[in-house]
């Protein structure tokens, strides 16, 4: 498959996908960057707030005064500011995800990504220069702005890549969004080691580097072609769309006429109906099946329990008896990256539906394995290996399907008209679910203890059944063909309802 993909990849297409994926890399880095230096940042917050000092560690051993805290992270003020530093990122993403469609259609996908990079650079400067003023205020402000940026880019990147990619390789190229995210997380984990940047002197630089990919992306975006679908369907510029399509496809034998004909039909359909806003998309019965599928795909990604592994893997490895849990956590990041690459290779051969089912089913089994391992490792020391193996396999199954596929399948499920609104809704669903898991998991873990992953196993089983019954395969299909699958299903449902009504009327008249 890879040689065939390389034959289809022109230099322009490779540049466009790489440039767009820099936004995803930045998103992944921003997700992971705050975790590794937590203790260092909490200590700095405590010192600048005047509620903690290194002397407190010594004093607490010889004092019974309540105001002395051996760790800065135990002080209520530090807890509040640290929690805000983490959670404000998701809140920013939730708010901005509604604007993805507006920004994407305002000046185009490329100029949209270029415009929002101002936010990323501003956020990086706020965090990188945080020691110049009140660090807790600067970091919280920077994280809020960065979250707002990531909410936009997490929608714009899959939208752009999905619209410029050749149909046969739309899945493989779409998966690169998730690959860039996990590489960003891995880079942040490595840089977060205390002997690199995760120390008292360098942590502001580590946070400030969150904005670095935006600078490179801003230099490269003017060299990238605009989405041909945007040019033709939204702006009606056929010749510019033809030129853009040629630039991203192989030279010589490629004829853009069939692709432009498909866009023409899609444009005609879009012109027949008013512009699809988020509210009208929610209310429309025409797109309801696609919307339910899109939202459930994103819910299955976030409520699978994967963020519980990412956020608390160090604590889980500690319970499992790992001597250096931080390196085991980096190992999870490496597994993450490797199996996302596996997904890139398989997604256009095995298909989206198949990989998602395999991934969710495998995660369900691993969640049960983690529960058994955590529960019995006190009685049987070798059970700690079961727990660790289950964690690594859990992450592997996630990246094969449930991790990357929801991000780009939404762009496949909807035609040009409702696509921006659908991506905005799906993005908001993803960010909101992420926030809910991040805020509630510690309480759920306290309540269920070793049985916490049984809850996720139940959810994973439910998502697997739903996807088996309701999600069609989109591999190799045009946007028009995918829409026809849902129309066919809707017509069958409407016909079934009509037949049932007629049967009931006939029965009533016979009884009479």
UniProtKB/TrEMBL annotation:
Broad class of the protein's primary localization: membrane
Keyword Transmembrane found: yes
UniProt GO molecular function: D-glucose transmembrane transporter activity
Pfam family, one: Sugar_tr
GO CC terms in record: brush border; plasma membrane
Keywords carried by this UniProt record: Membrane, Transmembrane, Transmembrane helix, Transport
Region listing for Disordered, in residue ranges: 243-268
Membrane-spanning segments: 79-102, 114-134, 140-161, 173-197, 291-314, 326-347, 354-376, 382-400, 421-444, 450-469
GO biological process: D-glucose import; dehydroascorbic acid transport
Its membrane topology: Multi-pass membrane protein
Positions of the Major facilitator superfamily (MFS) profile domain: 16-475
Location of this chain's protein in the cell: Membrane
Recorded coiled-coil stretches: none
PANTHER family referenced in this protein's UniProt entry, alphabetically: SOLUTE CARRIER FAMILY 2, SOLUTE CARRIER FAMILY 2, FACILITATED GLUCOSE TRANSPORTER MEMBER 2
Family as reported in the entry's similarity comment: Belongs to the major facilitator superfamily. Sugar transporter (TC 2.A.1.1) family.
UniProt-listed NCBIfam families: SP
Name of this protein: Major facilitator superfamily (MFS) profile domain-containing protein
Organism for this UniProt entry: Dissostichus mawsoni (Antarctic cod)
